[in-house]
Amino acid sequence: MYLVRSGSERVAWKVAAHRVLLCALLSLPVFCTGSAIARDQNPAGIVGINRVNLAWLTPGEQRKILGDIAASGATHVRLSLSAPVDRSIDAIEIAHGLGLKILLEIQLTNPDYYADEVRARTGFGRIWDIRRLSDLDPGKYRKNLNATLRRLDDAGVTLMAVEPGNEINYSAYNGDLVVFRKPGSATPRRASDIRNRQAFERGLATYVEVARITRQELKATNHSRNAVVVSAGLSDMSAGEADQRGMERLDPQEVITLLKLRGLDEHVDAYGIHVYPGRKAGPKLAGDIRELLRFCGAGDAGKPCWITEWGVANSARSCPLDDQKRTDAVAAIRSVFNDLMSAGRLEAAFYYDWDTHAGYGVWRCGQLSSAGVKAIAPN
Fold first, then answer.
1. pLDDT digits over 273-309, tens only?
2. What does the alpha-carbon distance between residue 131 and residue 165 come to, in Å, rounded to a whole number?
């Protein structure tokens, strides 16, 4: 642990010095925004980048990727707490040492949160097999989260926000929602049509308990007691796409309503949502985003949203990368986000993803693409 932190501090010093030199010689605002001064200011809205599943990499690989992210001017990053947990924590410590503010997504698919005899629901080979949210053991979740937060506290790590769960309104990440043996038939449009409705609703009750435990365990820490608790980022998948995939899903607003009825608002500060609006800029794009985020509130009107994933695809593989169309779409989407942030209905937006997805990644050809620069630019 000491070696990881010491290495992170050395990387952080080099990154900071590199930024100062670039700012002085080239006056590049993208790099200057990542300075310590900029990070101490309160932005109009939080803007960040996703780099999940770092647990699968070596510490050296983690340092290289997180160092590139910090050097790019990014100030906030969404990381995942997944198995193997020790490697996940290594990445969190490195990111903290680089001065990055961390939104930590806790993957509820971790087998450590379930009894040994719990078996996964099948994905029929089209998607991964996954355990049912209703089978999650809150006591095991608390025990494992407590151990993680103690280690982070001992390392002096401060978490900015924590997001327990991911896309629990979609069968890829919630085993209480079924994957049909064959795709093509109509999938449920409302909760009353869910095949295993009782199990799904038990899972929602379990999720609210997970949110409660998360808040309690964070409050017991020294460094992350004031972290924002964000509910699981919900999928924006359309009913038509769900039919094509043969996978159950529900609209985000309906799931938020069902969770609120079970007491979610007592334990979270914001609602998580994912936004993948496509590539075309224009009036329809703005309208679609506003419609999707209609449940996001402000002040007495309700809780704001955090977009914990959003993205625009570019399937090009050539170098240098032609990213102009995606750059235009990203700029249009950011404009809508900025309006919602100004209204207090949206507090954060984290682009998906840095470098792991062939279509959505913005680290291309050894550098941050023009769309990536737009995506992570401060408001």
1. 999 997 677 778 999 999 999 999 988 888 999 999 9
2. 13
- The percentage of the chain sitting over the pLDDT mark of 90, rounded to a whole number, equals 83
Facing residues of 81 across strands? 106
Burial class (CB in 10 A: 0-12, 13-18, 19+), 346: buried
- Do residues 373 and 365 make contact, with C-beta atoms less than 8 angstroms apart? no
Which domain CATH number covers 98? 3.20.20.80
Q: How far apart are CA 46 and CA 17, in angstroms?
A: 24
Domain that holds residue 37: 2-376
Cα separation, 351 vs 309, in Å, equals 6
The structural domain count of the chain equals 1
Residue-wise pLDDT tens digits, 63-94: 999 999 999 999 999 999 999 999 999 999 99
Cα 117 from chain centre: 30
Percentage of the residues of the chain whose pLDDT score is greater than 70: 88
Determine the 3-state secondary structure of 132 from DSSP: coil
How many other C-beta atoms can be found within 10 angstroms of the C-beta atom of residue 326? 27
Strands 346-351 and 46-50: parallel
Say how far residue 217 (Cα) sits from the centre of its chain. Answer: 20
Q: What is the dihedral of CA 115, 214, 204, 196, to 10 degrees?
A: -30
Of 114, 144, 309, 153, which is closest to residue 214 (Cα–Cα)? 144
Question: How does the average pLDDT of the chain come out, rounded?
Answer: 89
pTM: 0.88
CA distances, 346 to each of 47, 99, 100 (Å) = 11, 24, 21
Residue 365 phi/psi, 5-degree rounding, is 55, 35
Strands 363-364 and 367-368: antiparallel
- 92 neighbors 152 (Cβ within 8 angstroms): yes
Q: Mean of the pLDDT values across residues 188-207? A: 96
C-alpha triplet 52, 119, 214: angle, nearest 5°: 45
Please give the Cα distance from 64 to 76 (Å, whole number): 17
Residues making up the chain, counted from first to last = 379
